[in-house]
């Protein structure tokens, strides 16, 4: 008579150990997956804010390089006014300040109080304003353009004007000058400084900036014969992402007091200096 085969199996202790090891391994895998997800979101946030920064710096550089340009010999220039006088006005006032324009005295470079956003205004001869508008001029005509850059909420915007309208020489026609165009969202600080030359009394023909100042100093410096030949811009941009950064670092833009955003999000600071080649050439020729 055969005895029944003895059955082998796991003890309760072995099963409990196996389950515990399984939980540890599963937990580690879950942590790795969560970590990878956070890393991917962080990389996406960094990429988005970098792209935004590159875009706006490139856009502003392309716009501002035209500052102070006026060519009275350009065949496309609209000659409905005395272009010699207009050329002198644009070349001597590449950065308009508050009070320059009789039709709207509020249009001009402004220094934001206590670290608030600045307002930048530039003038030049061009084919369109910063929004791409012709302001009533023909397709190929060039005219006296005034562009205003400012922040509303957290949107960096621009608005374009016909300089002849601002000077009271003609009535506005064409596109609405009060309509602002958004260049970039999630801009939490926009700061501007101006590189100025020596005064006329210094007899410095180099046309290089000797220092950088804020907009509230421009009136006095212009009266003494200094001229803006460079613009320094700094922006603080928030990434388009809900990823949390805690604690958020502080940021110091140009000469402003360091600021720390209240939102626990990814922020990045961008800065550039733009040489105004048209103004520099004018200053050199003026000092010959």
From TrEMBL:
It comes from the Bacteria. Pfam families: N_methyl (PF07963), PilW (PF16074). Coiled coil: none annotated. The keyword Ribosomal protein does not apply. The keyword Cytoplasm does not apply. One of its GO terms (biological process) is type IV pilus assembly. Keywords: Membrane, Transmembrane, Transmembrane helix. The chain crosses the membrane at residues 12-34. This is Prepilin cleavage protein. It comes from Paraglaciecola hydrolytica. The lineage of its organism: Bacteria, Pseudomonadati, Pseudomonadota, Gammaproteobacteria, Alteromonadales.
């Amino acid at each position: 008579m055969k005895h029944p085969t003895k059955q082998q199996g796991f003890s309760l202790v072995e099963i409990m150990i196996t389950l515990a090891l399984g939980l540890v391994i599963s937990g580690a895998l879950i942590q790795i997956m969560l970590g990878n997800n956070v890393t991917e979101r962080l990389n996406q946030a960094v990429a988005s804010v970098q792209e935004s920064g590159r875009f706006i710096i490139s856009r502003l550089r392309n716009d501002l390089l035209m500052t102070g340009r006026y060519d009275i010999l350009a065949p496309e220039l609209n000659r409905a006014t005395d272009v010699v006088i207009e050329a002198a006005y644009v070349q001597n006032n590449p950065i308009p300040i508050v009070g320059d324009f009789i039709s709207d005295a509020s249009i001009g470079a402004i220094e934001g109080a206590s670290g608030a956003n600045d307002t930048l205004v530039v003038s030049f001869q061009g084919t369109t304003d910063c929004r791409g508008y012709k302001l009533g001029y023909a397709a190929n005509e060039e005219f006296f353009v005034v562009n205003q850059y400012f922040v509303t909420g957290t949107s960096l915007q621009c608005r374009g004007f016909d300089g002849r309208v601002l000077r009271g020489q003609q009535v506005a026609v064409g596109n609405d000058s009060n309509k602002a165009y958004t260049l970039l969202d999630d801009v939490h600080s926009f700061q501007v400084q101006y590189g100025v030359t020596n005064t006329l009394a210094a007899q410095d023909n180099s046309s290089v900036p000797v220092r950088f100042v804020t907009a509230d100093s421009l009136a006095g410096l212009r009266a003494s014969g200094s001229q803006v030949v460079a613009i320094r811009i700094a922006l603080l941009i928030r990434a388009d992402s809900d990823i949390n950064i805690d604690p958020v670092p502080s940021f110091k833009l140009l000469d402003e007091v360091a600021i720390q955003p209240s939102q626990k999000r990814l922020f990045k600071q961008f800065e550039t200096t733009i040489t105004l080649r048209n103004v520099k050439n004018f200053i050199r020729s003026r000092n010959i």
